[in-house]
Records
---
Amino acid sequence: MGAVIETRALTKTYGRRKSRGIKDVDLAVEEGEVFGFLGPNGAGKTTTIRLLMGFLRPSGGRARVFGFDVWRESVEVRARVGNLPGEFALEDRMTGEDLIRFFARLRGVKDLGYAHELAERLDAELERPMRRLSRGNKQKIGLIQAMFHRPPLLVLDEPTGGLDPLVQEEFLDIVEETRDEGRTVFFSSHVLSEVERVCDRVGIIRDGELVEVEPTDALVDKAFRHVRLVFDGPVDPRPFEALPGVEDLKADGARLTFTLHESPDAMIKLAAKHRLVSMEYERPSLEEVFLTYYGQNGGGR
Ligand SMILES: Nc1ncnc2c1ncn2[C@@H]1O[C@H](COP(=O)(O)OP(=O)(O)OP(=O)(O)O)[C@@H](O)[C@H]1O
């Protein structure tokens, strides 16, 4: 099967002033993959998710989920998608258990076994009224609600927000199991480490535009490297500084550290003219790669 989510030039502007939401987003999420949708606050993640769920009408372009138009056939879409919205209003007096039973009736689900398994694994409090739950505990109820009927597609907006680290880990295990069952997961995040751990591919959105879509490994692989060279005596750092792709060079007598944005060939040949004691050549984290798209202060490259 082809794409589970497919958007073409999907665009949303807000209000009469046509203020920015998202612009010309072309996206294809394949069946059985875990897709991470990355961007800082205000980049357009929630807007995209609300469009996919048919909660917002596109200003331009279109989007399909399982082949259904997300706006005109939103009932068909929602029947196949488990969704955690960015913000959700929960009935204050209801307990988590009441809410799950309510959704189970709506969806015609009789067996609540998986709902209770999820509640136990996420350490959710199903017996308390919602108004007495902390943000993180409400988030757990929202996640159970999105997942307990094992929908073929999960669309989750910042699913780990407010969860403590152990529960985040458990949630990521559940995401991996969901993929093992051949189901598809699309989630937005700005926690790069979790995306690096579970996502097969990532899309990076900046100022409403999708700037990169890559397999997670490939994105990190094609990025720069951290290099640390230690020689048996002081070396002149200037020839290293002059190499193409060398940035942020720091010299400390016999020790040079820098980032390298080109292939290592010229650097290795230059280093080999001296006596090397040790060399480290390391991939960056996804977090560091992400910063190269945004700059340290959100500027971008
Ligand atoms: N209802 C609205 N009316 C006007 N502008 C809006 C509205 N909702 C979002 N925007 C604008 O659209 C842009 C994208 O917002 P969106 O909420 O989709 O970003 P996000 O990536 O989900 O951010 P966050 O991580 O903060 O939720 C922002 O510039 C935001 O100010």
Note: The chain has two domains: 3-89+149-221, 224-282.
---
Amino acid sequence: MEHPLIEAALAARHAPIPPTLRSRFHAFHRAHNLRFLLVINLLGQAAYFSYALADLLAVPDIAALSLATRTAFLLLTLPVVLLLFRRARSMRLLDMLLPALITLAALIWFELLTHSRSPNVATYQYASVIFIVLANLGVRVHYAPALFWSLAISAATGQGVVRLAGGFNEATLVFSLVYLPVLFFSLFISWTATHHGRRSFLLAQLDELTLQELLHANGRLRTLADTDALTGLPNRRQFDAEAERAWYHARQRGHSLALLMIDIDHFKPYNDHYGHPAGDACLRRVAGLLASHMREGEYLAGRWGGEEFAVLLTPAGPELAATVAQRLVDAVAQLAIPHGHRPDGSDVVTFSIGGALSSEPGVASLAMLVERSDARLYQAKRSGRGRAVMG
Ligand SMILES: Nc1nc2c(ncn2[C@@H]2O[C@H](COP(=O)(O)OP(=O)(O)OP(=O)(O)O)[C@@H](O)[C@H]2O)c(=O)[nH]1
């Protein structure tokens, strides 16, 4: 659902952030830009303070006043900056902190210059273009407030220049011709940065969604690959993998596991008389019965193939294996699925079980455990069906 929304935003010229993604957008920028904003604020503070030295050389008559003013500015605003970066949640506020402080700094600096009688003032005032550049360099999140503060800085600069020039004259015109390209250049920088910020957020969201979809599809594929479509039980592939794992753990921990091979009795005549769909339904009921007797992490039932199932019990000794096997044999009979075409006189579906334990002598591998269980299943069939033979 978010996919088309994000793609549409990316295709739009200004890459607008959809309202539903705004809080995520701010969290994203907090994660990516908070440090940058803090550093550029501190650099701005350091630069503003260090210009006391330039004042000393260019406008020495107000050097002491400049140093005192800049020190006061630093002492008053630096704690506020640090506090806001520690406490404030709003990225809009932190994004605009530097431009706002620069507006104040510009007002103060021009006020200082008006107190100087130095002949350098006329040229030195050009250094004020640093204000508009620095203010826009730091913007990362919102362009509209950046534009607002740029106009505020330009107004502070403009009134200062006009005051120093004693009104609108050639000097102010020359300053404007120098200042305006710098202003447009600076606005272009902040526009590009905020646009890039929105695009990188939207692209990151798209990547995240695509990854989620892939993981989901992967999960579904794995489930499909591991599950028997008819019964919903783990299929042979999955059961084999689980059995391998259980065998390995049993060996490592020194405990025994049991394997029960289960085969529905006289299923061919059932299929022949009731039809294949009824045979499928019967397989599903038997599978459901097995699943209902399993215990998470201890017993695992799987479809071995055809009308054969397998159950793994881990850990399991001979008593537990025999008890579970008998319980299953009784339970399937109690389901009382009619089977009126058995050649042996019984009239419900039953199954036979052959079981073996990994701790039995001569069982040195999983394949041997399967072989032994299979042999006992054959015995169960030969000795009358509907029973469990456990050795
Ligand atoms: N409906 C259905 N039948 C299946 C499926 N898989 C295997 N079968 C049937 O299961 C029957 C297995 O029959 P046999 O192996 O001859 O054995 P049986 O009749 O069960 O006899 P015993 O095992 O000796 O008791 C065959 O008729 C298969 O077609 C399945 O997925 N659906």
Note: Residues 230, 263-268, 271, 276, 279-280, 283, 306-307, 381, 385 surround guanosine-5'-triphosphate (CB under 6 Å).
